[in-house]
Structures are given as structure tokens and as C-alpha cells.
Amino acid sequence: MVELDPKHAALVAVGQATDANASLIRFFLEGPFNDSAPFEDEVVARFAEATLRAIEIELGTNRVLDTDEQEALGQLGAACAKFIEGWVG
């Protein structure tokens, strides 16, 4: 995954989350995309990338996080990254 500065990471996160939210709204309003897929695109993967980018921003700031918070964010970020690798690759 490409390293981005915080502002660009935020922009990617917003774009991915917005697309995923739009798909969920479309599902709510119109129902499943087709008989074999609820969504036209990869909603979970888009949220995973948005979450990963938000975690990168969070961990990259000077905000003081206790060890448990850092560990939890690290684990969630690692899980998102692994999921994205499987989605892309």
C-alpha cells in the first residue's frame, strides 16, 4: 500500500467511505444489486481502506495513546491491511 501524507490519506479515506456509504444507501433504497451480490462494488473493502487510512493518521499524530490503544489500533490496522491485500491481490 502506498504511503500518503495525512491530508492525502484523509482524502482517500473520505472517498472510500463515501462510496461505501452510497452503496449501503442504494441497497437500502433499491435492494440487492443482483441475485448473487448485495452491492455493485466492494463495500467492506472500501470501509477497510478508509479505516486503515484513519488509523495511519491517528497513529501518525502527536496524540498520546496508551499502550492498549496503540496495540488495538495496530491490530485493527493490520487486519484491514491483510483484508485489502486479499481483495486487491
Structural account:
There is one protein chain. The chain has helices at 6-30, 43-60, 67-88. The protein is elongated, with a radius of gyration of 15 Å. By secondary structure, it is an all-alpha fold. The protein contains 3 helices and no strands.
Q: Name the helix and strand elements from N-terminus to C-terminus, one letter apiece.
A: HHH
Number of helices: 3
Mean pLDDT: 90
Share of residues in helices: over 70%
Low-confidence stretches: none
Category by helix and strand content: mainly alpha
Task: Describe, in short, the structure shown.
The chain has 89 residues and is an all-alpha fold. The chain is 73% helix and 0% strand.
Which terms would index this structure?
89 residues, mainly alpha, elongated
Give a topology summary:
Layout: H1 6-30, H2 43-60, H3 67-88
Helix pairs in contact: 1-2, 2-3
